[in-house]
Amino acid sequence: MPEARDRLPHGQGKKRSRRGKGKRRKKPLGMRLGLPWRVSLTARILAVNVIALALLAGSLFYIDSYRRELLAERYRLAASQAEIVAHALTGMDSADRRALIARIGAGQALRLRLYDTRGKLVADSFDLAPPSYRLVDPAREPWLQDAARAIDQGMDFVLGAPPVPPYEDNPGADARAWPEITQALQNGRTEVNHEAAPDQTPIIIAATPVGLHGEALLVTRNARDITENVRMARQTLAIIVGGAFAVSILLSLFLARTIVEPLRKLVRATVRVRLGRDRSVVVPRLPDRRDEIGLLARAVSDMSGALRQRIDAVESFAADVAHELKNPLTSLRSALESLDRVDEPDLRRQLIGIAKDDVRRIDFLVTEIADASRIDAELSRTTFEPVDMGRLVHALAGERAQRGVNGLCPVEVLETTEPGMDETARLMVPGDAPRLERVLQNLLDNAVSFSPAGAPIEVMLAREGTRVIIAVSDHGPGIPEGARERIFDRFHSLRPSGEEFGKHSGLGLAIARTIVEAHFGKLRATDRIDGEHGARLVVSLPAWQGE
Fold it and tell me: Which domains can be identified in the chain, with CATH numbers?
């Protein structure tokens, strides 16, 4: 078997182990990849896709292994051809040898040269017959071939391939001009090598002994097809990778556009909302987007709407507080200023009484305002537990009767039964018992203030499906249909004539609705269901569903 000499070196890398001197904090992925976090999302998407394709483009360099395989195959073919011809030449006379060399050289696109025992050239197929191949002059080739050779040289430089010596053909030179012949005669076996033609295509050189007397045969071939095949494979792969690059960039830009542009709209809208310079800013909800970005847009829109409502509520609440405090403060200031100018004892006592009432009014308002402002925050931190509304209503009615806060209006508790329902769980709701008690207190206080003396106040308890209903009815003047929502506004009150000033703050029903809504319930005002005069305030709460 002939032996081919591979001029391409094979390096062996060294493995190094690095041990950390201490526990280090792990850096973010973007920093480990060399990408700062300030890089835009579009650039990151492009980088991720391009990096993957860059790895694929690296396969261009592995075409060099394809070239090596082709060269190795040609080495074996050249060695076999040289040995076959050398065996055929053994024992022939000079004329037959020349004829055989000329015929094989022309038929196989080879150049065969026979050297005698003294190293003199005795036969050359190119002299005996027309040359079977000619070396190409690169100066006469188009610029595309120059570009192809430049690419080949660049690939070899990147891969660290060793330089291939140029092919030099000395007509009439003896065997000593060919190191392959010297080695073949010394080793007694075929030697194969390759050199570079002027156009950088490989020249396969094979030398083998002829007989046992020191003759040698030199076979050369210009293997241009190897370079052409390698270039064709490289060109095909480059076209595929280039097309993949173009498609990947276009898809990356499309993906970035579908992600980045909506996010930029959201950022601009949220910044304008944060600055608060334009109250009409609408955060885009992106209803056509059914993906996570659409969900984010709608969540941000809802959040900004809730924030705007909360800001408006705070501003309105602050204005209402200022207005409600201003009235008693104005009355108090007027009474105090008048004391210095009044000498009559009866009038001074009247002014002092007015001042005391105003102080009580202010103290009552401040207490109610503080309680109203704490409700949302306190309920957000409260863990709901099962509350028996039947027991709570009965206990509250008995406690109010003992304290005499109902006046001349008795409280009657009515429960509607539902067949097949566990009595202990029928009226259970999830919630905070003290806050639910506050709701009932405010509703009963409201009913007492509007009910005539001796008129009962009915509290009805019922279970309707998955809801628990508590209805408080009185026999007062009722609530006009146009004012049934406004009565739940802060500081809005439709007080009966002749009621003592400062006894109510206008926050009772507002606080009650806030607590009920925090318990995922509803509070509304209706007429009495029996057709009599009076108002009916209905609380609907979700029933306790168990663990």
Answer: 29-59+227-281 (no CATH), 61-222 (3.30.450.20), 291-381 (1.10.287.130), 382-547 (3.30.565.10)
